[in-house]
Write a structure and sequence with these properties.
This protein has 236 residues and is of the alpha/beta class. It has helices at 19-34, 66-72, 107-124, 188-192, 198-213, 223-227; strands at residues 8-16, 40-46, 50-53, 75-78, 85-88, 92-98, 130-132, 135-140, 143-153, 156-164, 217-220. It has an eight-stranded mixed beta sheet with strand order 7-8-9-10-6-2-1-11, with helices on both faces. Helix 1 (19-34) links the parallel strand 1 and strand 2 (40-46).
Length: 236
């Protein structure tokens, strides 16, 4: 694959993917972007039920013991993104932008751009979203609907954003989301009053990220195209 201009972005749609596999894919793509073998990549996916603890995450923010977690059918992983504990699961749209910030912009600009893209996506569905100073993410009223947790290594981003679309919000009852006691959460379904098609939301978020971040060309790709022979080891 030829190295593309920084204004190009590849979209990798993965469907429902276990967190550990998506993490391995991210790491492989970070290496490729860092080496300038491929341009930026936007991974779009959903995860099976999982709680992840970021670098500031505390086990005390998990409100269930090991037996309770097993009964709930949810995994727990400690990961290398920023932030505390959060939930991922079916009905939540996850986007992992893997970008070289050295040729695009700095960390603060990056996080603000992610928030702006989320606000635009909500607006596409008649939902008024907003940000709060000092608290990354997006809210609808007093409830958080989208979460941001990123890692920047060697100038390249990974991890990213999660947007509650048709999410089962009861899973948040068993954690202290973002380490904030009594934080209330919501979903696009609850805010709009009806189920939304994930494909519609995915297309909106892809378009919004492209517009906000200035990507002139957005092209769909697959793992084989992006990683070559290394894709085979990430197939499961």
């Amino acid at each position: 694959m030829n190295v593309a201009r920084p204004t190009q972005l590849y979209i990798l749609d993965l469907g429902l993917v276990r967190y550990e596999r998506a993490w391995r894919i991210q790491k492989a793509l970070v290496d490729r972007v860092y080496q300038r073998k491929i341009p930026g990549v936007l991974m779009m996916l959903e995860h099976p039920h999982v709680y992840t603890l970021g670098r500031r995450g505390k086990m005390s923010d998990l409100l269930l013991d090991e037996d309770g977690l097993k009964r709930l059918g949810v995994d727990v992983l400690r990961v290398d993104r920023g932030g505390e504990v959060t939930y991922h699961g079916p009905g939540q749209l996850v986007a992992y932008p893997i970008l070289d910030l050295k040729s695009w912009g700095g960390p603060v600009k990056y996080v603000r751009s992610l928030e702006e893209a989320l606000v635009r996506t909500l607006a596409d569905f008649g939902i008024a979203g907003h940000t709060l100073e000092g608290l990354p993410g997006v809210w609808v009223g007093e409830r958080k609907v989208a979460f941001i947790g990123v890692r920047i290594s060697r100038g390249v981003t990974c991890h990213g954003i999660s947007l509650n679309v048709n999410t089962d919000l009861s899973f948040y009852d068993h954690i202290v989301p973002c380490g904030i006691p009594r934080l209330r959460v919501t979903s696009m379904e609850r805010a709009s009053g009806g189920l939304l098609r994930m494909g519609d939301v995915r297309r909106s978020l892809t378009r919004s990220l492209g517009q906000v971040m200035g990507f002139a060309a957005v092209t769909h790709a697959d793992l084989q195209e992006l990683l070559g022979e290394a894709a085979a080891s990430l197939a499961r």
